[in-house]
User: Fold this.
Amino acid sequence: MADLSVEFLGVKFENPLVLASGILGITGDGMARVIEHGAGGVTTKSLWAKEHKGHPNPTMMGNEHWFINAVGIPDAGPEKAAEELARYRAKTDAPMIFNIVGGMMEGFGEIAEKVAGMGPKIVELNISCPNVKDEFGKPMACSISKSAEVTRLVRSKLDEGGAADAKLVVKLSPNVENIVTIADSVIEAGADGICAINTLGPGMVIDIETAQPVLHNKFGGISGHMLKLLSVALVYQIRAKHKDLPIIGTGGISTGRDAIEMMMAGASLIGMGTAVHFRGPEVFGKVAKEMNDWCDENGVEKITDIIGKVHANT
Ligand SMILES: Cc1cc2nc3c(=O)[nH]c(=O)nc-3n(C[C@H](O)[C@H](O)[C@H](O)COP(=O)(O)O)c2cc1C
Assistant:
């Protein structure tokens, strides 16, 4: 049996597989269930400073190759989030990453202040959702200056709110010309790590019988299996510039082989979201077993030995 444990930003994960934000991360019970099924940790769905309504249904569709969603980040607000966190904590000590979102700049500051009081060890800053553009404009992750400004703001609010020890991960968008320049800017502004990537697009699906868009929002972010080709490349590029940067590699991972590939590109943790729709919450235990089998077959004793391995050969 290989040692699959990973230390990420000072937090120990029993294995590198983490529930990605927005999938089953709504209730404490749902997140605890994912841990029971073998995840090393969870990411909350994006938390807002106040209640936020998402988009009307239909909000998602897909198959085992691709997925599209425009849920629009619905959230019941921080009081409810604190309740769910307590329910999670009553069931497990496994690490939780607090994902936060804000719409406009001041909204990011407000939620950072609120989350600082919840005792986070790792905060993930979602500046890259393509589905709330109508409300708030282009995601901040598409601008070098805005992504730096929001990172600086959130860092200062965490510090002021008593969470100076919390580490800050910024979640980047694939919908940019050069993701490395965005990574450079948020690192310079105080990010301790990167999550790459959020959904691609937006994309669109048309029902040809009714000649109407399938999603109520018309457009949605693309995730799932096909995204792995892009997420692996972008993680590789970020790691090539920032050698020891802690990275959560997210996008299209659904098997042990996918996860190994993403780690070789440079990820220390693996986010899995859409795979839960197709392999169920059991996907975490299954992928961990597949990783273990691969390690045994290939003489790998510690999973951390493969992080960024492809860079030694390129
Ligand atoms: C239904 C759905 C809801 C999502 N909600 C969020 C969210 O609230 N915050 C966030 O940062 N990312 C959200 N995402 C993006 C995922 O966390 C992830 O970055 C993306 O889907 C790519 O990974 P995957 O192919 O494993 O799903 C969502 C994705 C899906 C499919």
In short: The domain at 6-313 is CATH 3.20.20.70 (TIM Barrel).
